[in-house]
Amino acid sequence: MKRRIDTYLQKLIGEERFDFYSHVRDFSDHEIAPHILSWERAHQLVPDDAIAKMAEMGLFGLPIPDEFGGQDGDHLDLVLMGMALGYHSQSVAITPGAAISLGAKPILLFGTDEMKKAHLPELAAGKRMVVFGLSEPGRGSDAGNPEVVAVKQGDQWVIRGEKCWSTNAAWASHVVVHALTDPDGKPGKNTTCFLVPMNDPGVHYQEMAGKRVWEQSSTGSIVFDNVAVGEDSVVGEIGGGFKVMLTTLNGGRLFIGGLAMGSLAFALDKCSQYAQERVQFNDQAIGRFQRVQDVILDMDIALEQGVTWLIHCCNLYLEDRLDREQAAKVKIECSRRASDLVVQAMEICGGVACLDEFGLIRHHNDLFVTRVGEGSNFALKSQATRPLLPEIARILQ
């Protein structure tokens, strides 16, 4: 099925980048689309052979320098990959996406030379993954104030607590843990990130049951029972955990926006096709109705706006000029517009839209994650409003 999103991407990115996007798009059409329904009905995670194929394409090493075995690409390549894979399945797209933006990126941006040499080559090859331990049972969008603690004992740090909603936990060899290290310290300067091996005897992982979104993606709960690590496990600096977290999430929000656009692109193409094929009322296609045309046009407008804005923000990110308010706003708008419009697309298609083989219900469910993942939209709105109400923001600080 031809993708409308390609029309906009061809005008916005160079030929080399579009060739890369097209390569991933074709892989998604041929290697993911034919199997996703059987994976869903079997309630299985993304199979190892599919992960291996994505690794062979170099998708796990996109922004990692070639000196560490990566593709020497950048964050825009990562977002384009998310759009290409997310068109059929956000679960598949988030597997290499989170492995890079939440796993490899903290090490790439803040790890020591020794840490990079020890971990990045295998991460780039897709032989293993690192998971980012951020959300907690009692801390969701308030991730800057973790309940997981790391207490200094001699020359070691002892970590206690639980992380949850950790993407790719089933495949992870290590977890980046964002922990409170100075309870009396100034907010934003009182946490630290640590790289902890998942096979440590004090680390206990369990896949979270009952999830009805991103069903092929691994989502784990990770408990740390007096896990001792040395100074060489610190990612960034002592007291610099908030900076690591914020930098990681800024890029991650662009990727989440890309997933939303991938889902919207699928819905637009599916709905447009259905509206021309579905015959009702005097044996005419329902696409002749103005209300149907309005929804299809609204999806197309939202797709062009979202893709254009995302690529602009990716370029700012590459120039280190993307502030967190901009990252929050583009994530908010892409996710809410896509999820709202997919509901309208399902109304046009009627009962068939509820069937798993039609595809829209998958995107409807997965788009919920884009509204709450990498910071819920409600929480991010408060953050994005600060430049608009500076006096209020000053009082709340």
How would you describe what is shown here?
- The chain is built from 13 helices and ten strands.
- By secondary structure, it is α+β, with helices and mostly antiparallel strands.
- The strands form three sheets. Strands 1-4-5-8 form a four-stranded mixed sheet. Strands 2-3-7-6 form a four-stranded antiparallel sheet, covered by helices on one side.
Keywords:
397 residues; alpha+beta; Butyryl-Coa Dehydrogenase, subunit A, domain 1; Butyryl-CoA Dehydrogenase, subunit A, domain 2; Butyryl-CoA Dehydrogenase, subunit A, domain 3; 3 domains; four-stranded mixed β-sheet; four-stranded antiparallel β-sheet; 10 strands; globular
Number of extended strands: 10
Q: Give the integer mean of the pLDDT values.
A: 95
CATH domain class name of the largest domain: Mainly Alpha
Q: Describe the largest sheet.
A: 4 strands, mixed
Head-to-tail CA distance between termini: 51 Å
Strand percentage, roughly?
15-25%
Radius of gyration: 21 Å
The number of helical runs is 13
Low-confidence spans: pLDDT under 50, at least 5 residues?
Answer: none
Number of domain units: 3
Task: Please give the structural blueprint.
Layout: H1 5-12, H2 15-32, H3 36-41, H4 48-56, H5 75-86, H6 90-110, H7 113-124, E1 129-133, E2 149-153, E3 156-167, E4 172-180, E5 191-197, E6 203-207, E7 219-230, E8 234-235, H8 241-277, E9 279-280, E10 284-285, H9 290-318, H10 324-349, H11 360-372, H12 377-385, H13 390-396
Parallel strand pairs: 1-4
Antiparallel strand pairs: 2-3, 3-7, 4-5, 5-8, 6-7, 9-10
Helix pairs in contact: 1-9, 2-5, 5-6, 5-8, 6-7, 6-8, 8-9, 8-10, 8-11, 9-10, 10-11, 10-12
